Amino acid sequence: MAEIKLIDGYPEYMRRLIEKVEKTRPKRVDYTPPPMSKQEQEEVLKLHPDYAPGGKRAIAVGPNKGDVGPNEVVDLLEAYPLIEPDEIDLSRVDYDTDILIIGGGLAGTSAALWANNQGIAADRILLVNKLRHGDANSIMAEGGTQAADREIDSVQRHYLDTIGGGHFANKPEVVRALVEDAPFIIKWLIEMGAIFDREANGELVEKWGGGTSIKRMHSCRDYTGLEELRVIRDEFRNRQIPCLEQFPAIELFTEGNRVTGAILWNLETGEYKIVRAKATILATGGFGRLHIRGFPTTNHYGATFDGPVIAYRAGAKLRDTDTVQYHPTGAAYPIQIVGYLLTEKLRSSGAQPVNVDGEAFVFPLEPRDVEAASFIRECYVRNKGITTPTGLRGIWLDTPLIDIKNGKGYIAKAFPAMNRLFKRHGIDMAKDPVLVFPTLHYQNGGVETDPWGRTNVEGLWVAGEVSGGVHGKNRLMGNSTLDCLVFGRRSGINAAEYVKTHTTAGNITLEHVKKYIDMLKQAGIKPERRAPILLPDYRGRAALARMIDIF
Amino acid sequence: MEEKNNIMERIAEANRPVTTGVDEKDIKDWVTIYIMGKGYRVPADLTILTAIEYAGYRLLRSVGCRQGHCGACATVFRRAGEYKLQADLACQTRVEDGMYLVQIPFSPAEKAIYDISKEPYDASVFMKYYPEVARCVSCNTCTKSCPQDLEVMDYVQAAIRGDFELVADNSFDCIQCGLCAIRCPAEIVQYHVAQLGRRMYGRYGLSMPEHLKKRVEEIEQGKFKEAMDNITSKSREELEKMYAERQREPD
Ligand SMILES: Cc1cc2nc3c(=O)[nH]c(=O)nc-3n(C[C@H](O)[C@H](O)[C@H](O)COP(=O)(O)OP(=O)(O)OC[C@H]3O[C@@H](n4cnc5c(N)ncnc54)[C@H](O)[C@@H]3O)c2cc1C
Ligand code: SF4
Ligand code: SF4
Ligand code: FES
Description:
The structure holds two protein chains of two kinds.
Chain A: E1 6-7, E2 10-11, H1 12-28, H2 38-45, E3 56-58, E4 68-70, H3 71-77, E5 95-102, H4 106-117, E6 125-128, E7 145-146, H5 155-165, H6 172-191, E8 217-218, H7 224-238, E9 243-244, E10 249-255, E11 258-265, E12 272-282, H8 306-313, E13 318-319, E14 325-331, H9 345-348, E15 352-354, H10 368-380, E16 386-387, E17 393-398, H11 400-406, H12 410-414, H13 416-423, E18 434-442, E19 446-448, E20 460-462, E21 467-468, H14 479-501, H15 511-522, H16 541-545
Parallel strand pairs in A: 5-6, 5-12, 6-9, 12-20, 19-21
Antiparallel strand pairs in A: 1-2, 3-4, 7-8, 10-11, 11-12, 13-19, 14-18, 15-17, 16-17, 17-18
Helix pairs in contact in A: 2-10, 4-7, 4-14, 5-6, 6-14
Chain B: H1 2-19, E1 30-35, E2 38-43, H2 48-54, E3 74-78, E4 86-89, E5 100-103, H3 124-129, H4 141-145, H5 152-161, H6 164-171, H7 179-183, H8 190-205, H9 210-220, H10 225-232, H11 236-244
Parallel strand pairs in B: 1-5
Antiparallel strand pairs in B: 1-2, 3-4, 3-5
Helix pairs in contact in B: 5-6, 5-8, 6-8
The complex binds flavin-adenine dinucleotide, iron/sulfur cluster (SF4) (2 copies) and FE2/S2 (inorganic) cluster.
C-alpha cells in the first residue's frame, strides 16, 4: 500500500502551507477583519448555494403548489407513497393512544414529558423512532442554546437578533414565544440536572453566537445536545412512557381535515403497524441526508425529510422551503470526516478563518450564510483555498489562536469532542489549524406552525427542525435546540389540552393519500420516485451492481 | 451566471465520495477486512462504518449520528495476528488491513427508575439504584474499552464514595455506547450509573444562577410585555433599521 506519508496528520505539502499560517499568526492575534456592510454581504451571498443559479424548482402539486424549493426537496414532495392505500388492512389497530409523537430528538422527547406533566398518563402517550431513541440531530448539537438571561440582555434583543438573522421572514408571534420561553427552558433543564458550563463564581458561561449582538449562548462543553438530550431522555425513561425504536412512521391517517394517527413500519422485519391517536406531534427533524446541491452534511443518518413529506400529503402547509442552511465550518480534511460539524463556538472562542496565504479574510462571526458564501468565494473565485489530497478545497480555521487567547489547555477542556475527532486522525488542533468548507446543516423552513405548535391541519402539531416559521430564512446558532425545547413543550401542552376536550379518536383512513396520488397523476408526474425515503443509501456501487434481490 | 453554476457543480463533484458513495475507479489503496468472518476488499480511506456500507450492507442498526456523538455504532474487533479484542466506534475508526469485526446492535442493560427530585444527595442513591457498583473489582476493563478515553473505573469508584462532582466530570463526555458495560465482569452498567450521578450533581451540586431565576420571574411578571408588544408590531422597514443600528456588546 503506497499511502501518502503524513506528518502529524497532514501530508508534507499541506505542512508547508501551514507554515504560512504560523507566520502571520502573531499579527492576527489582535486583528479581526471588520464585519461586512450590507452591500458587501449581498454581493457575496450570490455565491451561496441558495442563491447561485439552478438547483431549485416550483412544487407542482399540493398546498404549496408554485412555491420554490431545492430540487432534492421537491423530488420528495412530488414522489408517490411507499404504500398502496387499498392494500393496507385498517381493521386491526395495533396501538390506540391519546398522543402519538413521531421522532424522539429534543423536540419529541420534551413534548412527551410536557404532555405527561399536563396530566396525560404515560401509557396514553407513544413515542416512535426511526432508529434508536436519541439517534438524532439533537444529540449532535455542539455549540449551545440561546437564552436572554443576563442582566444586560433582554428578550426583545434576542427577538431582534433572531428576526434579523432570519432576513425578517420569521413569523413574529412564534419568535416571541421562542425568546420569552428561553430563560424558563434553561432553568427547567438545570432543575432536571443538566450541567451547563459555569464561571468560577457559579454563573452561567455565556458565549458569542454568529449573528447575535450579545453573548447569550449556553453550552455544555461541546456536547450541549448530548447533555440536554440524555437528561430529558433519562427523565422520559423514568416516567416509563412507551417508546418504539427502529419503527419509522411512513404515512399519517386522516379523517377529513383531521390527522388521526400513523402507519409505522418495522425497519427490520418490514411489517406495518397501525396507530390510532387523538393527537399527533410530528418531530422528525431535518433533511441533511438529502445532500442538497451535492454538499456533505453534519446531520445524522435519519435526517431525510420524512415529516414534511407525510404531513404535506395530509394537507399541512409548508413555508420557507427555499432556503437551506449551510454551516460554514464543516471539516474538509481528512476524507473520513468530511462534512462533520466544527462548532461555531470555535470561532466565538477566537479561531479565525485564514486563506492559503495566511490572511484573515473575513469577520469570523458573520451570519452563517454570509460566512459560508465568503469561504466559497475564497476557494472558487479568488482561488485562495487549500486543496486536499482528494481534490476538495477548503480554508484554514486557525484553531491554535483559541489557546493563545484563552490560555493553554483551553481547547482540550472546552472542546473535547472536536479535539478527540482530530486526535483520532493524528491532528492536534491546539497546535495546527484545521481545514474547513461549508456543509449542509439545517432545514430552515418546514411545516408551518403557530406559537403552540399547531399546524393548519387539526390533530397535527409540529415541533423542532421539521417546523417552519420561527427561523425565517436563516436560523441562528443556538436557536434550534431552543426551538425544540420551547415548541416541544408547547406542542405537548397544547396537544394534551386538545385531547382532554376531544375525547373520541377519529376514524383512520388513507383518503388523503389516494387524493394525493390522483393529484400527482393529473399533474403528469410519473411514479418513478417514492417517499419518504427513510434512510440514504451509501452502499458501494460495485456491490450494488451485482446484487440480486431474492428475499 | 454560468460560472456560478459551475462552482456548484465543481463542489458537488469534489464531494461525491461522501455524498453518493465511493467509486471503485477513484481508489488507489485497498485493505481487506472481515465483517462477521467474511472477507471484503475495501478502500483504505474508509471508516469501519463506511467500509461496511461499501461492502454492500444497508445499515438499519448500529448507526445513528455518524459523527461520534450517539454511541450507536459500538464495534468489537481484532487486528490480524493479535489475540486482544479492541472496542471502538465504527464511525470514528479507520479500517486496517486484516481487521476482524462485528458491530454490537444493542446492549440489553437495565436502567433504574427514579425521581431525582426525591432522592438524597449522597452515596446512598447509587447503592439504592445500582447496588452492583459495590462489586467493582477495579479491573479497569471498562476504562480500557471506552472509545471516549474516559476514566470509567475512576467514576465508578467515585460513585461508591458519593463524589458526585468527580462522577460528573469524568463521565461528562460519555456517549452511552455500552462498550464498558458489555465487558464488565461485575455486570455494572457504568453509563447508567454516570447518568444518575450527573443529574444529581446538576440539580444539587450546582446552584441555580440568580440572574436566571430573576429573569424568569421578570418575564412571568410581564416586565418585557410592553417592549415585546411594541417590537412584534413593527414593520419590516422599522425592524431592518433597528437591526442595522444594533450595538454589539464589546468582546
Ligand atoms: C452536528 C450538529 C450540530 C448542531 N449544533 C447546534 C447548536 O450548537 N445549537 C443549536 O441550537 N442547534 C444545533 N444544531 C441543530 C439542532 O441540533 C437540531 O436542529 C435540533 O436538535 C433538531 O431537533 P429535533 O428534535 O427537531 O430533530 P432530531 O433531533 O433530528 O430528532 C428527530 C428524530 O426523528 C426521527 N425520525 C425521522 N423521521 C422519522 C420517521 N419517519 N418516523 C419516526 N422517527 C423519525 C429521527 O431519526 C430522529 O431521531 C446542530 C445540528 C447538528 C446536526
Ligand atoms: S470493568 Fe467493571 S469491575 Fe472492572 S473496573 Fe470497570 S466497573 Fe469495575
Ligand atoms: S463510559 Fe462506557 S458507555 Fe460511556 S462512552 Fe465510555 S465505554 Fe461508552
Ligand atoms: S454513529 Fe453515532 S457514534 Fe458512531
